[in-house]
Structure formats: C-alpha cells, structure tokens
Design a protein that fits this description.
This protein is α+β, with helices and mostly antiparallel strands. Helix content is 55%, strand content 15%. The protein is built from 10 helices and 12 strands. Strand 3 (58-60) and strand 4 (66-68) form a beta hairpin. The radius of gyration is 40 Å and the shape is elongated. The two termini are 55 Å apart. It is found in: Cell membrane. It is an enzyme of class 2 (transferase). InterPro entries: HAMP_dom, HATPase_C_sf, HATPase_dom, His_kinase_dom, HisK_dim/P_dom, HisK_dim/P_sf, Sig_transdc_His_kin-like_C, TCS_sensor_his_kinase.
Length: 399
C-alpha cells in the first residue's frame, strides 16, 4: 500500500505493483489448489486394489493382525490422503510465498520506468527540461511509454527553446528602433545650437524608427493570429482568389520594383480558395515583398497562380542573394533573413514565418527551392474552393 498525503488526512490506495502482485498470487494459489485437488483425487482412486478381490478376503499385516481387505484399503486411503493433503498444503504455502515475493520483485523491476517517469515529471521545470528517462530495458510496452515520454519532452523542450528565442528576438527587434529614437532625441536636445533643420532631421529618424516598430508589432499580431488558427481552425471563411491577392501585392510594390528596374513576369490564372481573405492577402504580400526586398538591380521577379479541381497554388520567385538549399527550412523561422545580420537589415524577419503560419491555418503546404544563380522560388499550395475542407493539416517546409 502507498500512503498519499493530502491537505486533510492520508488515505491508503493500492499501487499498481501491489495489484499485479495480488493478481499473480491469486492465479498461483488457485492453480496450486487445483493441482493439489487433482492429486488427491488421483491418489484416492489409485489406492483401491482391494476392489478387485472377492468380498470377505482377509489380509495379514506385518504385526500379525488379520483384517478385511476392504477395511485395510480404507485405512490406507485415509492415511495417504491426509499425508498428501498436509504435505501439499505446506508445499502450496511455500510456493505461494516464494511466487508472491518473486512477483512483487519482478513487478517492481518492470514498473521501475514508471517511477522514473513520475520522478522526472515532478522534477521538470524551466531549468530541467533536458532530463530524460533513457530507458534501456526490454523492448516492451513500458519501454514504449518511456520512449514516448522522452519524445514528448523533446518536443516540449524544442517548443520552449523556440519560444525563448522568439521572445528574445522580438525584444531585440523592438528595442532597436526605441534605442534609435531615444538616442536621436537625447543628442538633439543636448545640442544647444540645434536649428529647425536639425529638429526636422531628428523627427524624420524618429518617424522611420516608430514606423519600423509599428510594422514589427503588426507582423507579430498577424503571426499570432495565424498560429492561433493552425489546422484549419479559421475564425473567418470566405471565397477568395490567390490571383487577386498577388495582383494587389504587385501593385503595392510597383514603385520599389521600378526603382530596382526589375523584370516582372506574371501569369495570374484564377486560383479560387476558401479562407480568411485578410490572411491570404498578407501571405501574397509577404512573398512579393520578400522577392523585391532581397532582389538586386536589374533582377527578375516572377509570379504565377493557377488551380485544378483539387488545389490552388501561388508561385513567387526572384533572383538575388545566393541561398543554400540546406538553409531554406530555417528561413521559415521567425526573425531569419537568409543569412543577413539582423541589425541594419530591412524588415522584421517574420515574412516567411507568417507565410508558413497562414498556410498551415488553411490546410496547405509551402515549399521553397533555392535557385542555382541566386534567389528563391516559393510555392504555396492550398485546397481548392470546391474541395471538402480538411479538419486539420500541417504546413510542411519541403526541401
């Protein structure tokens, strides 16, 4: 019995080890009792040779006495039955004690990983997420449970580390424009000879920094909103077209594309889907914005949309900086900018992570392929509007 301490009074509760031991003991004692009964019956039937003699037959014992054969047989049967029963009960008791003790020891050894799971779970905290059971026993159900628990801890630890990195990166991103604004204000205010032009310059820097901070906050809100609707748990579903979102994104970036003298190739076929129009528009906008931002002078940009009865797709590609294919999955993590340093780079580094989250919320997939001469081509595939929406899905970054 294990004593569990509560707020009011301790209560007794049988443990799994004790229940297994009792079950094994009951089965062992029951089997032994059946064998003993069977032996008793067989001995009783075997010790009846006098049944084959004529009635009235006498037998002479070693002490000289003469007794009826049947009466002598009954005495022998009773004596041997009592002896068999007594010795059998003693043997059954000994076997039961040894069997129950062995079952208790074996059950304790078999359930040891469960105690390790319990103790590990009790020790888990922010500073102990690296602890694992690492069961090395037989490949049985207990080993499967221990392995599953370790795998769960790996996932929790990875998610916790990702959350800490996200918070640290978000804090850094927000602190940078705030530091710029404060520095500009302090320097300008400390300059007694500052004129109107200097104050205008300071106001321009502060405005740009505040705009960057505002854009970062908006991106964080969109990312949180998208991840909250992962697995097709969309709060809003309406018919929309990926081609419309791509066209709007191209129009919004037209000035920047003209400045960089980009060659733009478009093939915007209808791509009807059902989902959140705002999120899907942000998805197309992020892809086009990244394709322009990370392009180079006189580069290329291509955008294609289309659909079939099962799915709709949006393809956005660009020339630009060289990207290793092995680094592509990392680009879909928050605050990653394709190898550029965070400080001084344009954007918040949330563009592709928002694309992944929006795609996941709509039950789609996103793939990215690094171009041999530099640049990236990203393909988003979503269920077509006339297909049955899936209950849950996961946006997988394929390489």
């Amino acid at each position: 019995m294990t004593v569990y301490l509560t707020g009011r009074r301790p209560r007794l509760r049988p443990t799994l080890r004790l229940r297994l031991t009792l079950l094994n003991g009951v089965l062992l004692i029951g089997a032994g009792a059946i064998l003993l009964l069977l032996a008793w019956l067989l001995v009783g039937d075997a010790l009846r040779p006098a049944d084959q003699l004529q009635p009235g037959t006498l037998v002479e014992l070693t002490d000289g006495r003469t007794i009826d054969a049947r009466q002598w047989q009954e005495q022998v049967v009773r004596a041997h039955s009592r002896e068999l029963l007594a010795k059998g009960l003693v043997a059954l008791l000994a076997i039961s004690v040894v069997g129950v003790a062995g079952a208790y020891a074996v059950a304790g050894r078999a359930l040891r990983p469960l105690h390790q799971v319990t103790s590990t779970a009790r020790r888990l905290g922010e500073a102990t997420l690296d602890q694992r059971i690492r069961y090395s026993g037989a490949d049985d159900e207990v080993a499967e449970l221990a392995g599953t628990f370790d795998a769960m801890l790996d996932r929790i630890g990875g998610a916790f580390e990702a959350q800490k990195r996200f918070v640290a990166n978000a804090s850094h991103e927000l602190r940078t424009p705030l530091a710029v604004m404060r520095t500009e204000i302090d320097v300008t205010m400390a300059d007694d000879e500052a004129d109107v032009a200097e104050y205008r310059r300071m106001a321009t820097v502060v405005r740009d920094a505040s705009e960057r901070a505002n854009n970062l906050v908006d991106a964080l809100l969109v990312l949180a909103r998208s991840e909250a609707q992962a697995g097709r748990r969309l709060a809003r579903k309406a018919p929309t077209d990926l081609a419309t979102g791509a066209s709007a994104a191209l129009s919004a970036m037209r000035a920047e594309m003209t400045r960089l003298k980009l060659q733009v190739d478009t093939a915007l076929e209808p791509a009807p889907v059902v989902g959140d129009p705002g999120l899907l528009e942000r998805l197309a906008g992020n892809l086009v914005e990244n394709a322009v931002r990370y392009n180079h002078l006189h580069g290329r940009l291509w955008v294609r949309t289309g659909s079939d009865p099962e799915q709709a797709w949006l393809v956005v590609g660009n020339t630009g900086f060289e990207v290793e294919q092995g680094d592509v999955p990392g680009l879909f993590e928050a605050f990653r900018r394709g190898g550029r340093e965070r400080t001084g780079a344009r954007g918040s580094g949330l563009g592709l992570s928002i694309v992944r989250a929006v795609c996941d919320a709509h039950g789609g997939t996103v793939t990215a392929v690094a171009q041999s001469d530099g640049g990236l081509e990203v393909t988003v595939t979503l269920p077509a509007a006339d297909t049955t929406p899936v209950v849950a899905a996961s946006a997988v970054v394929q390489v």
